[in-house]
Amino acid sequence: MNEERLQKYLARAGVASRRKSEALIEQGQVTVNGRVAELGQKVRPRDAVRVHGELIRDTVPTVTYVLHKPVGFISTADDERGRKTVMDLVPEVPGLHPVGRLDRDSEGLLLLTTDGDLTLRLTHPRYQHEKAYRVWCARGAVSADDLRRLRQGIRLEDGLAKAREVHAADNGCRLVLTEGRNRQIRRMLGALGYTVTRLLRERIDGVKLGDMPPGAYRKLSPQELGQLEPR
User: Fold this and answer.
1) Could you say which of 103, 115, 117, 158 is catalytic?
2) pTM score of the predicted model
3) What's the rounded Cα separation, in Å, for the pair 96 and 87?
Protein backbone atom coordinates (compact mmCIF):
# COMPACT_ATOMS: atom_id res chain seq x y z
CA MET A 1 0.00 0.00 0.00
CA ASN A 2 1.34 3.46 -0.89
CA GLU A 3 -0.74 6.37 0.39
CA GLU A 4 -4.09 6.44 2.17
CA ARG A 5 -6.14 9.07 3.92
CA LEU A 6 -5.18 9.62 7.53
CA GLN A 7 -8.65 8.94 8.95
CA LYS A 8 -8.75 5.61 7.09
CA TYR A 9 -5.30 4.72 8.37
CA LEU A 10 -6.34 5.43 11.96
CA ALA A 11 -9.52 3.38 11.60
CA ARG A 12 -7.65 0.46 10.07
CA ALA A 13 -5.05 0.61 12.85
CA GLY A 14 -7.84 0.27 15.42
CA VAL A 15 -7.56 3.77 16.93
CA ALA A 16 -11.24 4.61 16.41
CA SER A 17 -13.97 4.50 13.80
CA ARG A 18 -13.38 6.63 10.73
CA ARG A 19 -15.79 9.30 11.93
CA LYS A 20 -14.20 9.46 15.37
CA SER A 21 -10.77 9.55 13.74
CA GLU A 22 -11.90 12.56 11.72
CA ALA A 23 -12.97 14.25 14.95
CA LEU A 24 -9.55 13.58 16.52
CA ILE A 25 -7.85 15.14 13.50
CA GLU A 26 -10.11 18.20 13.58
CA GLN A 27 -9.39 18.63 17.29
CA GLY A 28 -5.64 18.74 16.58
CA GLN A 29 -4.95 15.53 18.50
CA VAL A 30 -3.12 13.83 15.60
CA THR A 31 0.35 14.59 14.27
CA VAL A 32 2.22 13.26 11.24
CA ASN A 33 6.00 13.47 11.34
CA GLY A 34 5.76 15.99 14.19
CA ARG A 35 3.26 18.33 12.53
CA VAL A 36 -0.40 18.73 13.41
CA ALA A 37 -2.40 16.78 10.84
CA GLU A 38 -5.18 18.06 8.62
CA LEU A 39 -8.41 16.28 7.71
CA GLY A 40 -8.02 14.45 4.40
CA GLN A 41 -4.23 14.38 4.62
CA LYS A 42 -2.60 11.30 3.12
CA VAL A 43 0.04 9.23 4.89
CA ARG A 44 2.58 6.63 3.80
CA PRO A 45 3.78 3.52 5.65
CA ARG A 46 7.01 5.21 6.75
CA ASP A 47 5.26 8.26 8.27
CA ALA A 48 5.23 8.66 12.07
CA VAL A 49 1.60 9.06 13.08
CA ARG A 50 0.82 9.94 16.70
CA VAL A 51 -2.46 10.37 18.57
CA HIS A 52 -2.25 12.27 21.87
CA GLY A 53 1.52 11.90 21.46
CA GLU A 54 1.41 8.10 21.24
CA LEU A 55 2.94 6.49 18.15
CA ILE A 56 0.43 4.45 16.16
CA ARG A 57 1.67 1.22 14.69
CA ASP A 58 -0.21 -0.33 11.80
CA THR A 59 -0.10 -3.88 13.15
CA VAL A 60 -3.80 -4.77 13.22
CA PRO A 61 -4.31 -8.04 11.28
CA THR A 62 -6.62 -7.82 8.31
CA VAL A 63 -9.98 -9.56 8.24
CA THR A 64 -12.19 -10.50 5.29
CA TYR A 65 -15.79 -11.68 5.47
CA VAL A 66 -18.05 -13.41 2.97
CA LEU A 67 -21.61 -12.09 3.27
CA HIS A 68 -24.81 -13.27 1.63
CA LYS A 69 -26.17 -9.81 0.90
CA PRO A 70 -29.96 -9.75 0.97
CA VAL A 71 -32.14 -7.63 -1.29
CA GLY A 72 -32.82 -4.18 0.16
CA PHE A 73 -29.33 -3.43 1.51
CA ILE A 74 -26.89 -1.11 -0.24
CA SER A 75 -23.21 -1.96 -0.62
CA THR A 76 -21.57 1.00 1.07
CA ALA A 77 -19.96 1.73 4.42
CA ASP A 78 -22.16 4.79 5.11
CA ASP A 79 -25.36 6.17 3.66
CA GLU A 80 -26.28 9.81 4.20
CA ARG A 81 -29.94 8.99 3.50
CA GLY A 82 -30.09 6.52 6.38
CA ARG A 83 -30.83 3.45 4.27
CA LYS A 84 -29.87 -0.06 5.39
CA THR A 85 -26.30 -0.95 4.44
CA VAL A 86 -24.33 -4.20 4.44
CA MET A 87 -22.39 -2.86 7.43
CA ASP A 88 -25.53 -3.46 9.52
CA LEU A 89 -25.10 -7.21 8.94
CA VAL A 90 -21.48 -7.76 10.00
CA PRO A 91 -19.40 -7.05 13.14
CA GLU A 92 -18.08 -3.52 13.63
CA VAL A 93 -14.42 -3.73 12.69
CA PRO A 94 -12.25 -0.65 12.15
CA GLY A 95 -11.59 -0.11 8.48
CA LEU A 96 -14.02 -2.78 7.29
CA HIS A 97 -15.61 -1.92 3.93
CA PRO A 98 -17.39 -3.71 1.06
CA VAL A 99 -15.33 -4.80 -1.93
CA GLY A 100 -17.10 -3.49 -5.00
CA ARG A 101 -20.85 -3.59 -4.83
CA LEU A 102 -24.08 -5.38 -5.52
CA ASP A 103 -27.12 -3.30 -6.45
CA ARG A 104 -29.73 -2.73 -3.78
CA ASP A 105 -32.11 -5.02 -5.70
CA SER A 106 -29.49 -7.77 -6.12
CA GLU A 107 -28.34 -10.42 -3.68
CA GLY A 108 -25.62 -12.95 -3.11
CA LEU A 109 -21.92 -13.12 -2.42
CA LEU A 110 -20.25 -9.91 -1.26
CA LEU A 111 -16.80 -9.59 0.27
CA LEU A 112 -15.99 -7.10 3.03
CA THR A 113 -12.41 -6.53 4.14
CA THR A 114 -10.00 -4.28 6.00
CA ASP A 115 -7.33 -5.06 3.38
CA GLY A 116 -6.98 -2.18 0.93
CA ASP A 117 -4.63 -4.17 -1.30
CA LEU A 118 -7.21 -6.95 -1.65
CA THR A 119 -9.86 -4.38 -2.54
CA LEU A 120 -7.63 -2.96 -5.29
CA ARG A 121 -6.90 -6.42 -6.72
CA LEU A 122 -10.56 -7.37 -6.85
CA THR A 123 -11.89 -4.12 -8.30
CA HIS A 124 -9.20 -3.20 -10.83
CA PRO A 125 -10.18 -4.41 -14.33
CA ARG A 126 -6.67 -5.56 -15.24
CA TYR A 127 -6.84 -8.51 -12.81
CA GLN A 128 -9.82 -10.12 -14.62
CA HIS A 129 -11.41 -11.74 -11.56
CA GLU A 130 -14.42 -13.88 -12.42
CA LYS A 131 -17.83 -13.13 -10.91
CA ALA A 132 -20.59 -15.67 -11.56
CA TYR A 133 -24.31 -14.84 -11.44
CA ARG A 134 -27.64 -16.64 -11.62
CA VAL A 135 -30.29 -14.49 -13.28
CA TRP A 136 -34.08 -14.86 -13.50
CA CYS A 137 -36.07 -12.96 -16.15
CA ALA A 138 -39.74 -12.05 -16.54
CA ARG A 139 -39.75 -13.50 -20.07
CA GLY A 140 -38.34 -16.81 -18.89
CA ALA A 141 -35.25 -18.53 -20.27
CA VAL A 142 -32.87 -16.48 -22.42
CA SER A 143 -32.90 -17.76 -25.99
CA ALA A 144 -29.90 -19.46 -27.59
CA ASP A 145 -29.53 -16.54 -30.01
CA ASP A 146 -29.45 -14.01 -27.17
CA LEU A 147 -26.98 -16.13 -25.22
CA ARG A 148 -24.70 -15.90 -28.25
CA ARG A 149 -25.17 -12.12 -28.39
CA LEU A 150 -24.25 -11.81 -24.70
CA ARG A 151 -21.00 -13.66 -25.39
CA GLN A 152 -20.22 -11.53 -28.44
CA GLY A 153 -20.96 -8.27 -26.60
CA ILE A 154 -23.79 -5.81 -26.09
CA ARG A 155 -23.24 -2.16 -26.98
CA LEU A 156 -24.15 -0.04 -23.92
CA GLU A 157 -23.88 3.72 -23.42
CA ASP A 158 -20.54 3.21 -21.65
CA GLY A 159 -19.08 0.81 -24.21
CA LEU A 160 -19.18 -2.82 -25.29
CA ALA A 161 -20.06 -5.27 -22.49
CA LYS A 162 -19.32 -8.99 -22.87
CA ALA A 163 -19.99 -12.05 -20.76
CA ARG A 164 -16.96 -14.33 -20.44
CA GLU A 165 -19.36 -17.26 -20.13
CA VAL A 166 -23.14 -17.52 -20.43
CA HIS A 167 -25.36 -20.60 -20.16
CA ALA A 168 -29.05 -21.35 -20.36
CA ALA A 169 -30.97 -21.81 -17.09
CA ASP A 170 -34.62 -22.16 -16.11
CA ASN A 171 -36.39 -18.79 -16.34
CA GLY A 172 -33.17 -16.93 -17.16
CA CYS A 173 -29.47 -17.72 -17.51
CA ARG A 174 -26.10 -17.95 -15.79
CA LEU A 175 -23.32 -15.48 -16.61
CA VAL A 176 -19.67 -14.98 -15.73
CA LEU A 177 -18.24 -11.45 -15.92
CA THR A 178 -14.74 -10.08 -15.36
CA GLU A 179 -15.81 -6.45 -15.03
CA GLY A 180 -18.29 -4.73 -12.74
CA ARG A 181 -19.99 -1.75 -14.31
CA ASN A 182 -23.03 -0.24 -12.65
CA ARG A 183 -26.10 -2.50 -13.12
CA GLN A 184 -24.28 -4.15 -16.00
CA ILE A 185 -26.22 -7.43 -16.18
CA ARG A 186 -29.59 -5.70 -15.96
CA ARG A 187 -28.56 -3.30 -18.73
CA MET A 188 -27.15 -6.04 -20.96
CA LEU A 189 -30.29 -8.14 -20.73
CA GLY A 190 -32.50 -5.06 -20.91
CA ALA A 191 -30.92 -4.20 -24.26
CA LEU A 192 -32.17 -7.58 -25.51
CA GLY A 193 -35.68 -7.04 -24.17
CA TYR A 194 -35.41 -9.00 -20.91
CA THR A 195 -36.44 -7.66 -17.50
CA VAL A 196 -34.41 -9.13 -14.65
CA THR A 197 -36.63 -10.17 -11.73
CA ARG A 198 -33.90 -11.65 -9.54
CA LEU A 199 -30.10 -11.52 -9.63
CA LEU A 200 -27.90 -13.65 -7.38
CA ARG A 201 -24.08 -13.57 -7.32
CA GLU A 202 -22.90 -17.12 -6.67
CA ARG A 203 -19.11 -16.91 -6.91
CA ILE A 204 -16.05 -14.65 -7.06
CA ASP A 205 -13.16 -16.68 -8.50
CA GLY A 206 -12.94 -19.78 -6.27
CA VAL A 207 -14.97 -18.31 -3.40
CA LYS A 208 -18.53 -19.67 -3.51
CA LEU A 209 -21.72 -18.58 -1.78
CA GLY A 210 -22.81 -22.15 -1.20
CA ASP A 211 -25.86 -22.62 1.01
CA MET A 212 -25.38 -19.53 3.17
CA PRO A 213 -28.81 -17.97 3.89
CA PRO A 214 -29.44 -14.26 3.21
CA GLY A 215 -27.87 -12.07 5.90
CA ALA A 216 -25.37 -14.73 7.01
CA TYR A 217 -21.62 -14.10 7.00
CA ARG A 218 -18.38 -15.93 7.72
CA LYS A 219 -14.66 -15.28 7.68
CA LEU A 220 -12.80 -16.05 4.50
CA SER A 221 -10.44 -19.01 4.93
CA PRO A 222 -6.72 -18.75 4.08
CA GLN A 223 -7.32 -21.21 1.22
CA GLU A 224 -10.04 -18.98 -0.22
CA LEU A 225 -7.83 -15.91 0.12
CA GLY A 226 -5.22 -17.72 -1.94
CA GLN A 227 -7.78 -18.21 -4.70
CA LEU A 228 -8.16 -14.43 -4.94
CA GLU A 229 -4.50 -13.82 -5.71
CA PRO A 230 -3.66 -12.14 -9.05
CA ARG A 231 -3.37 -14.55 -11.96
Assistant:
1) 103
2) 0.74
3) 8
